[in-house]
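Researcher: We plan to redesign the surface later, but first we want a full-length starting point. Tokens attached.
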């Protein structure tokens, strides 16, 4: 593979882990990113790169040159006020793009509530949260762009992300983990390193206008996850809290949905074996190597 010209709209944990993975494979990278902060030269893992200011209503015009020359575009910016701000601001440039690869990072919140049943990429999308509604609308915009202009777009629907730094163990240690009582509630998760690995796989194995669930093998309840984490840390479980007493609308929305996310398509198409196939391996790794 030649030197990669990659443009990251947003440079959060997924994008950073993706770049780390590419770097670990000794591939050369021309990297451009966006940030709400002022434009500047920056360095990440010994990679010098340009970061350009970009927000809902403004952006540094100098980024256009880099965007036009990019071979790969990763979009990890969430919709804002119901709008996909990348398409809103750069649709005309993207339509004329010669890029080889565009990945839009969506979320499994697009499925909505399936009462604990399994969902795959063909399941009904009936989002209940604002986030899920906006994500589904953004997906349709990206796929429409791919259809009309024959652009290479794939959609990754990410389950709940955890990492070596942000996970239930760190929340338990800080006392911020909440054990919320709700029966038959299932969530799916994915370690950020596995997301990065699948993104890397897709550089060589890509099919446009496809959607993939990026999830681990074992959906489970928050109670089961917190119980296991407490056992690992040898601490008492937090007290059970009733959902009706929670003030956070974000948390309440999170608990509206219950589903198990099927990852078969991801594993088969990318021929990928998860590094952290369930929360057990993921938390064991973090406990033994990080915390």
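Model: Full-length starting sequence:
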């Amino acid at each position: 593979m030649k030197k990669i010209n990659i443009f990251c709209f947003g440079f959060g944990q997924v994008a950073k882990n993706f770049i780390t993975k590419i770097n670990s494979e000794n591939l050369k990278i021309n990297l451009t990113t966006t940030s709400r902060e002022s434009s500047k030269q920056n360095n990440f893992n010994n990679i010098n790169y340009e970061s350009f200011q970009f927000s809902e209503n403004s952006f540094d015009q100098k980024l256009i040159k880099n965007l036009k020359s990019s071979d790969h575009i990763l979009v990890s910016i969430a919709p804002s006020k119901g709008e996909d701000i990348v398409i809103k601001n750069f649709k005309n440039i993207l339509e004329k793009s010669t890029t080889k690869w565009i990945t839009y990072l969506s979320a499994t919140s697009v499925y909505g509530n399936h009462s604990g049943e399994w969902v795959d990429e063909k399941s009904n999308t009936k989002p209940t949260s604002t986030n899920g509604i906006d994500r589904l609308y953004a997906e349709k915009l990206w796929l429409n762009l791919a259809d009309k202009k024959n652009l290479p777009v794939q959609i990754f629907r990410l389950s709940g992300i955890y990492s070596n730094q942000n996970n239930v163990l760190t929340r338990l240690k800080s006392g911020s983990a909440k054990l919320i009582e709700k029966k038959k509630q299932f969530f799916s998760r994915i370690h950020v390193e596995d997301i990065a690995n699948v993104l890397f796989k897709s550089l060589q194995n890509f099919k446009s206008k496809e959607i993939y669930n990026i999830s681990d093998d074992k959906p489970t309840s928050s109670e089961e996850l917190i119980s296991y984490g407490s056992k690992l840390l040898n601490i008492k479980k937090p007290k059970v809290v009733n959902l009706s007493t929670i003030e956070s609308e974000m948390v309440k929305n999170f608990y509206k949905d219950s589903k198990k996310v099927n990852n078969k398509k991801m594993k088969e198409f990318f021929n990928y074996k998860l590094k952290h196939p369930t929360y057990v391996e993921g938390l064991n790794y973090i406990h033994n190597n990080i915390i």
